[in-house]
Each structure stands twice: as C-alpha cells, then as structure tokens.
Description:
Elements (H helix, E strand, L loop, with lengths): L1 H20 L4 E4 L2 E4 L3 E7 L7 H9 L4 E7 L4 E7 L5 H11 L10 H5 L17
Antiparallel strand pairs: 1-2, 3-5, 4-5
Amino acid sequence: MKKLLTITALIAVFFISILNAGNKPLVSKNNILAAGGDTVTKSFAVSGNGACKSTIEGTLTSNAGVISASWDSTAQVITVTFVWSTIKKSQLCRLLANAGYDNAQIRTKDDTYAALPAACQYTRSAPSGTN
C-alpha cells in the first residue's frame, strides 16, 4: 500500500510540473531556453549601408544568447532581442565594432573599417573629441 501511495504521489508531482512548465513563456535560440523575463529587446544606432544589412544582423544572430536582430538601414538603428543573462548590450556593441560597424557605444578601429568590402563601407562621422 505504501508503494502504491509513493508511486501515485510521484506521478502527481510529475504531471503538476509538466502543467506548470506550460505556463511559462519560453524562447529557444542557439540551445538556450529562457523564461520570458530573461529576454530583453534593445534598439541602438549602428552605422552601415543597405548592402550589408544581412552581415550586420548576422554579426549578432550568430552568437549564443541573441534571439533576433533587425537593422533598419534608413534609420541606422538595430533592434536586438537577447537573453540578458547570456550576453549584454555592451558585448553586442563590441561584436559590431569588431566586424567594422560604428555603433552607439563603440567606434570601430580605422583598419577594421577599411577591411570591410567596398560595398559595405559607409560614410563615417568624425571621431569624438575632434573638430
């Protein structure tokens, strides 16, 4: 009788946990499952041109923790949804700068910008602190 009660209790706990898991919104990307509260969407400036839209977006979406990235070439703004416990906005900005794209936080190095394909080179603003 004790075994039957134990087994019944375990089955009940199992089904309750399955039902509760269904109530939490989950996001899956790059093998990451996160409760909806663990994701954040941020928009920030990224310089570029339309020819390299997919490169700019792919620079971010190829990284663990990034769920989506959409760059508006007219507004020069990227909107990124990511798992904040996995990657931070500052890291996203660093990834873009390392790929050759000036952004809201980091101006890419001149040699990195120069290494972009000609079709991806954009008009750069003057660096901060210069006239």
